[in-house]
Amino acid sequence: MRTDWKAYLAFSKRDRNVAIILLLLIVLIIISVFYYHPSGNQPLVIITTLDQELAKQKIDTTSNADEQIAYVPSEGSEVINIRAGELFQFDPNTLTAAGFKQLGLQDKIIHTIINYRGKGGHFWKPEDVRKIYGLQKEDADRLIPYIHIAGLQPTFTQKDKAQTNYPNPKPAVIEINTAPIEQWKALPAIGDALANRIVKFRDKIGGFTSVAQVKQTYGLSDSAFRVIEPYLQMASAPQKNIPPEKININTASLNQFKSNSHIPEEIAQAIIIYRSQHGNFSSIEDIKKIVFINDEIYTQVAPYLTIE
Questions:
Q1: Considering the entire predicted model, what is its pTM?
Q2: What does the UniProt keyword field contain (predicted)?
Q3: Second-level CATH architecture of 87-166
């Protein structure tokens, strides 16, 4: 019996080592719990449903922030830890680390903000502070009313935008023989180059005889002309000191036709080819027998042609 009793209390060397290790772990856990403090030096503000809890605790909400650092919440209330701090108007783009500390932000959040600004980051509106990594929603809600960003323009509502969004005015109708370059440039589809070409062409021919003649300007496409045509008018005849010499369609060479800028070169070539195939024209109206010379083209060139 005596031998059996000792057998129950006997430990091998391995068992003794395991027991010692377990005992050391228990001692370390007890020591760590004793010395561990979850909070820093700053006191914590414990927030619940503010209106109800402040009324229950009879805390004066008009007193300084330092006097409102903590109170005992009622049972079952939601507890959120936020660092206490003094609230004041500030610009997050210029406030120093000490200023953020005074607001009650943690060192890690302050470092994130300073680092963000150092890399070129900028807060454009108060709500941008919500983007700071680690900043709690409750902290952002507490700070946003005090944020004042230098140079921030007041925001406009959709109603304000609707009142200030005026439609572009229609281009003014211009006089084709007197309009300066600036008025031509104001027309849709007409830029600096075309405006200069139109005016130079008008001066070269001594003035337009019709609105349609504007279309003869080099580089002015049919589609562009159709866009500006409603804004063109010819209220006065072109000012000419010397009327252009009329071209004899039965004898003129291509170079002679070219001397009159009112007659397009393709029209001149067609007249010469038709004349060589069918003989002389008996009247100016005979050029309408050429396939592509319609009434509009005829009206344009007829004043500058003759058969005599």
A1: 0.32
A2: Membrane, Transmembrane, Transmembrane helix
A3: Orthogonal Bundle (1.10)
